[in-house]
């Protein structure tokens, strides 16, 4: 992931390292260097780019959505935010206790598994309540990350399944305020795939 504001410098460094680079466009921006190395950059939120094969035009084609949401969910924690452009206008980060795994066997293991599932369900319900509050009436995209099953459950419980969704990379640990802010940065960054020859 490369923040949009750093991409021009990133491309310049790529050219310095690999030599003259030919650019092509669609559905993102691709660069192929004379040594065989290449990069492929995509705009955030699945935005398709088919303009001129120039870095400046590629960057000018991107603006952050005026109204979009972010939802992170993992067992035991969640973070939800509503954003206007790059600014968080409302958010909530919370935690709920979820039993850890046990090494016990037999009925004890089944009992712990049921308790864990119930606790996770309560955590997802809490996350869905806050998502419903902060993202009510949202029309823009929803960026999501964390435990896949948990995210799907929260999105459905909050009634947000009709929004266009974009997954970000896995959220390490229990979501906290720092995780939320990092996820906002990731959501607004360009996805860049690189192959060095």
TrEMBL record:
Family annotation (Gene3D superfamilies): eRF1 domain 2 (3.30.420.60)
Chain segments annotated as transmembrane: none
Pfam families: acVLRF1
Occurrences of domain Actinobacteria/chloroflexi VLRF1 release factor (ranges): 67-192
Top-rank lineage group of the source organism: Bacteria
Upper classification of the organism: Bacteria, Bacillati, Actinomycetota, Actinomycetes, Propionibacteriales
SUPFAM superfamilies in UniProt: Translational machinery components
Name of this protein: Actinobacteria/chloroflexi VLRF1 release factor domain-containing protein
């Amino acid at each position: 992931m490369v923040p949009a504001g750093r991409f021009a410098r990133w491309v310049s460094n790529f050219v310095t390292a690999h030599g003259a680079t030919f650019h092509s466009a669609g559905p993102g921006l691709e660069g192929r260097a004379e040594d065989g190395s290449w990069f492929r950059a995509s705009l955030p939120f699945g935005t398709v780019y088919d303009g001129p094969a120039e870095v400046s035009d590629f960057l000018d084609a991107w603006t952050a959505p005026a109204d979009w949401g972010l939802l992170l969910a993992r067992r035991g924690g969640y973070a939800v935010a509503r954003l206007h452009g790059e600014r968080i206008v409302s958010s909530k980060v919370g935690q709920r206790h979820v039993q850890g795994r046990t090494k016990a066997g037999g009925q004890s293991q089944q009992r712990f598994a049921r308790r864990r599932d119930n606790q996770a369900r309560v955590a997802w319900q809490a996350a869905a309540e806050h998502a419903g509050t902060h993202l009510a009436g949202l029309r823009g995209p929803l960026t999501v990350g964390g435990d896949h099953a948990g995210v799907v459950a929260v999105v459905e419980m909050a009634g947000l399944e009709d929004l266009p969704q974009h997954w970000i990379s896995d959220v390490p640990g229990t979501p906290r305020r720092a995780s939320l802010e990092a996820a906002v940065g990731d959501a607004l960054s360009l996805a860049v795939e690189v192959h060095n020859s």
